[in-house]
Amino acid sequence: MGRTYLVEESIGQYLTELSTKVKPYVTGLLIGQCSPQRDYVVRAVRTPPKEQQQEESLGPPRLASLDEEWITTHASQVSRMLPGGLLVLGVFMIATPELAKDGQNALRKLIFSVEKSLSKRRLWKPTEEDISDRAALQICSITKKVVCRTYDVQDPKSSAKPADWKYQSALTASWVALGCTVNVNIHIPLLATSPNHDLEKNTKNGLNRWSKQIEDSVFLINGQVKDEDTELLEGQKKFRGNAQPSPQFSDIKVLTQLCQAGSPRSTATVQVCSGSINLRGAVKCRAYVHGNKPRVKEAIQALKRDIINTLSDRCEILFEDLILNEGPQKKNFGREYHVLPQRLFVPVAGSSVMLSDYKFGDEAAAEIQERFVEMLDQPVQADDLHIAEDISTVDICPVTESPSETQQKQELTKATLLLKLQQNMGLVMAAAVAVLASIFSFNYFSD
C-alpha cells in the first residue's frame, strides 16, 4: 500500500488555475510535512519563469528543455523560507497530453536532483525514522487527471509507487506551534593552514560542531522534560465542535550540555590560528507539528532542525551578499563587523502555519514582498511582515597580524627561548656530570 497525501483544499484551486496557463508545461514544488502514518501538503509553489523560456516556448513542446539547475536552485531558496517541521515533499508538473508519456521520467529526475541539492546544505543528519519517500505529482492540463507516485530518495534505483492524493479543508487548523529563543555565542577559529583563509568553509565547520551541541541539548516544554515517546498534547483538554486552536509553546527552553555524561575523556589540541569568527545574538526559532497525536520526539526534532537551519541559512545569505557586493575574489578580510539578516514571519492565508524569510537592515519591505511573490507565488502585505528578533552580528577578527597575535608571537618566542634555555641547561648539567664523573674516576684510580 502506497503513502497517503492529505492536501490543503486551496492547493487544488491553485493547481487548477495554473493548468489554464500551461504553455506547454509548468513545474513546481510541494511543501509540507512527513509523518509515519501520512504526509501533509500545505503549499504548492510553481517554479519562477525565466525570461528565455518565453523564446523557447515558440518551438515545439518538449521536456528536454527543462532547466534542472533552475528548479533545484528554486528549491534551495524556498527551503530557507520554511520553519521547522516543513520541507520540500516533492515536485509537480502540469503538462499537455502529448508530454504526459515523458512526464514521470522528468519528475523522477527532478526529485533526486532536488533532494541531492537540499541534503548538501543540511548540517543535521536524517534519522532512521525520517520518511525518505518524495512525491511526484503529474496533472494533465486538458483532462485534469491527477497521478501521484512516490520515489525513495535514499535508493537511487527506486521505482515508482502509487500514492493517494486527497484534499482536505482546514488541514492545519489543529497543528501545534512551538517556539523558542536561542542565545548564540559561537567562536570559530580560522586555522593558519586553511587555504586562502576560506571564511565560508571555516564557518560551516564551526557550525557543524555547534549543531552537535544543539542535537544533544535538553528541551523543556512548559518547564518540564517530557518523555520522547509520549504524546505532545497529552493531558490537554480537547474541544468539541470547532477545531482545537493551536497551543503555542512559547516558553520552550533549550539547555545546552557543556559535556556529556559518560563521554570519553578528551585531550586539548593546540592549533595555530590566523584569526577567528564570532557569531553573537539571539535567534527566534519556530516549528510546526501536525495535530494527529504528535509525539514529543517529532516536535523537538522539528525545533532542533529549525535552530540549526536558521543560523546556517543566515550565514549562507551573508556570504552570498558579500560575494555579490565585493566579488568572489575577496578571500582575506580585515577586522569587520557584519549584521546577520533578521528573521521575519509571514502568515499563510487560510492556515495556522507561518512562513519565514530574512532581511538585511537596508532592505525595504517592497523587496521582501517581491521575493515572496517570486519564490512562493504568494502576495504579502507589508503589515504582515513580522520581524521576530533583534540584531545578531558576525565579528570577523583580522587574518592579518594584530596586537593579540603579536603578543601571541612574543609569548611563543619567550616559550621558545625558555625551551632552548632548558635544553642548554640540560647540556650544561650533562657536561657537569661528565666532568665530575671523570674527576671521580681519576681520583679512584689514583688511590
TrEMBL record:
Listed name of the protein: Protein odr-4 homolog
Subcellular location: Membrane
Role description: May play a role in the trafficking of a subset of G-protein coupled receptors.
Keyword set, alphabetical order: Membrane, Transmembrane, Transmembrane helix
Organism name: Cisticola juncidis
Membrane-spanning intervals of the chain: 425-445
UniProt-listed GO biological process terms: intracellular protein localization
One of the record's GO cellular component terms: membrane
Pfam family, one: ODR4-like
Family: Belongs to the ODR-4 family.
PANTHER family named among the record's database cross-references: PROTEIN ODR-4 HOMOLOG (PTHR33966:SF1)
UniProt entry tagged with the keyword RNA-binding: no
Subcellular location, principal: membrane
